[in-house]
Amino acid sequence: MEQLMRLNSQTSGRDKILRLWQFTCRLTWAVMEKRSRNMEAISRLKEVEGLISFARRLLRLGRSVDMLYSSVSSLQISDPFLRMVITSSRISSSLFLFADHLVWLKKVGLLQVDEIKWSDTSNRFWLYSSVLNLLRDCHEINIMIKSEQRMKNLRPELGSVEYVTAVAQIFIKHKNITIDTVKNICDTLLPMANLGHVKVSPAHVGLLGIISSTAAMLQLVDPSNRLAMA
């Protein structure tokens, strides 16, 4: 309960809680719809999902500026690859949020823009950010494998049984890598589904969102679940 209260006290924490509820609604109505059960309840769940999405957009107003500003600090990272992917990811996140702000302003009638166009733009930048974050995970895993190789004097080839075993051991030993990788895989598939690049059912979208939101909450509750900046 204490951890939940701490999570709820943070703006990003409240967003993740709402996001979890949003995708739970999506999964619930999708499963009910597939089984043709209680159309009235399904309609209400869809309305609740829409209201939560609207509330999250309101809570995120201005976050695009914060994210853009945070990209400046990542320029100090010593590792050139990490510096590039983290900075690019944060800039992409900033642009994703900016496009999302425009969609929200259109929904409330304060701005006349092409909602579909800006929604697609938002999803594209979300996808770019998630792919860049996945590249960072791969880089971190590769560094750990090379470290293990030096200690054990091994040189497993990419795709070999030894290499796959080494990756599996890293996921077992380092929960921060596991949590971040799982989250970023889900966050890559979600915008791909929204853009029509992959076919994902509403139920699976809900499940991916629940997994991603839970992973993000674990990172907020316990800093050791996050990847440290190099």
Q: What can you see in these coordinates?
A:
The protein is an all-alpha fold and 230 residues long. The protein is 79% helix and 0% strand. It has one domain. The relative contact order is 0.13. The protein is globular and about 65 Å long. The model has no long low-confidence stretch (mean pLDDT 90). The two termini are 33 Å apart. It has 9 helices and no strands.
Secondary structure layout plus pairing:
Elements lengths: L1 H7 L2 H24 L4 H21 L3 H11 L6 H28 L7 H38 L8 H13 L1 H20 L7 H20 L9
Helix pairs in contact: 2-3, 2-9, 4-5, 5-6, 6-7, 6-8, 7-8, 8-9
Subcellular location: Peroxisome membrane
GO biological process, one term: peroxisome fission
Main location: membrane
Termini, distance in Å?
33 Å
Low-confidence stretches: none
The main pleated sheet reads as: none
Number of domains: 1
Mean pLDDT: 90
The tally of beta strands, per DSSP, is 0
Tally of alpha and pi helices: 9
Q: Give, in order, the helices and strands.
A: HHHHHHHHH
Q: Based on helices, strands and strand pairing, what is the structural class?
A: mainly alpha
Taking Cα atoms only, what radius of gyration do you get, to the nearest Å? 19 Å
Binned strand content: under 5%
The helical percent reads over 70%
Basic shape:
globular
